[in-house]
Amino acid sequence: MNARAPHILLVNPWIHDFAAYDYWAKPLGLLLLAAALRDHGMGVDYIDCLDRHHPRAPFQDPRARHGRGPYHKVRIPKPAGLDDVPRRFSRYGIEPEWLAADLAAAPRPDLILVTSLMTYWYPGVQETIRMLRRAFPGVPVLLGGVYATLCTAHARQHAGADEVVAGEGLRPVMARIAAMTGYGPAWRFDPEDLDAFPYPALDLQREVGYAPLLTSTGCPFSCAYCASRYLAPKRQVRRPEAVAAEIRFWHEAYGINDFVFYDDALLIRPERHIIPILSAVIEMGLNVRFHTPNAVHIREIDDPLATLMRRSGFETIRLGLETTAFDDRSALDRKVDAQQFLAAVTCLRRAGFSPHQLGAYLLAGLPGQRISDVEQSIRTVRQSGITPVIAHYTPIPHTPMWAAAVAASRYDIAADPIFTNNAVFPCRTEGFSWEVLTRLKQMAQGE
């Protein structure tokens, strides 16, 4: 192919939900794609509908720390079928008129790429694509991302894109770009080698407050509630020296102090991966902070690793505990037992981490789960001396638990992803309850 290099607009869409918060949420896949497109000679523009730093956005919450913070939001009607939920529904992100002005100021692209995340956020994708079509009639729209991969048929029918690309990796996206634009350059790096990729195009953001890090893809576990193995079937791990070099680059070139690990299995085989990464950070004398919102595996944490994490700058550690009903968890996962959890907490506390730095995720709303089991898990975590963090269960297609979720839900979650919204406890037969939600929050906060 010898067509001219296209100009491509990449868009991170709105969120439509009952609740949303920017907990270090950057569209890393889209920013990596943007960097790859530039590396192959294509022009790139970027619009983030979730931009908290938009010039027209209100003053930022001063309580926000290390790059986190609340999104701007506007109340909108609830989706059909969720009228029974006594909660407000909102569009999170910039206002439509701000987006319209930004699109009017942007050059007309040859192709628009839209990403997607949570499956039940697809109404935000729909609204975003409608706006894009009004601004650039005739320009084809390609949709990718998590929703596009997990609910491909639904996305093709309902999202409004011209084409939907499913699956992980750069190859399928580049193939669709070539088919839609006629531009298919020779590969300038190996798309199967994570270390060969250019660094994500963080410079396209309005503000670079922190750097997301992806040091590996995939996960060796097959937890019943998680789609990691479906979304990233192949486990790939970057070289520790390459990760350390990227940390140093963002720190020195952009003054970034906060780094957020997006890995699903950061601590697996620590002696080959995280230990040499952190040792290099210490050796380089970098004064940085690390955060793990995706949770880390508990069983790998011992005294030497906990001490290394403390010395290298770990600030926010989330442990993937999920439940303390250890006798009944074999159908859920096989990640950790009671002794391993308590031993890991002891090591982290002994290394100097405070209770507010340490949190353990606890799943609530699983099919057949009793609220009393969640309450007992909260009490157990609090007794260990760290903070319980309630994670509402989202039913996800292609996971081992999906069939049980479909059977347990009071909604037809197989027909429409909107009903998998974790804010409504879709697998709780009694329906959403402010009383239950408030009680769990108060228990987690020690009230």
Report on the structure:
By secondary structure, the chain is an alpha/beta fold. Helix 8 packs parallel to helix 9 (274-284) and helix 12 (371-384) packs parallel to helix 14. The chain has 2 domains: 7-181, 3-Layer(aba) Sandwich (Rossmann fold); 210-444, Alpha-Beta Barrel (TIM Barrel). The chain has helices at residues 28-39, 96-105, 122-135, 146-150, 152-158, 170-181, 228-231, 240-254, 274-284, 303-312, 338-350, 371-384, 402-408, 434-444; strands spanning 7-12, 15-17, 43-48, 73-75, 90-92, 111-114, 141-143, 163-164, 211-213, 216-217, 236-237, 258-261, 289-296, 314-322, 358-364, 387-392. The longest helix has 15 residues, at 240-254. The mean pLDDT is 94. The termini are far apart. The strands form 4 sheets. It has a 6-stranded parallel sheet with strand order 9-12-13-14-15-16. It is globular and about 60 Å long.
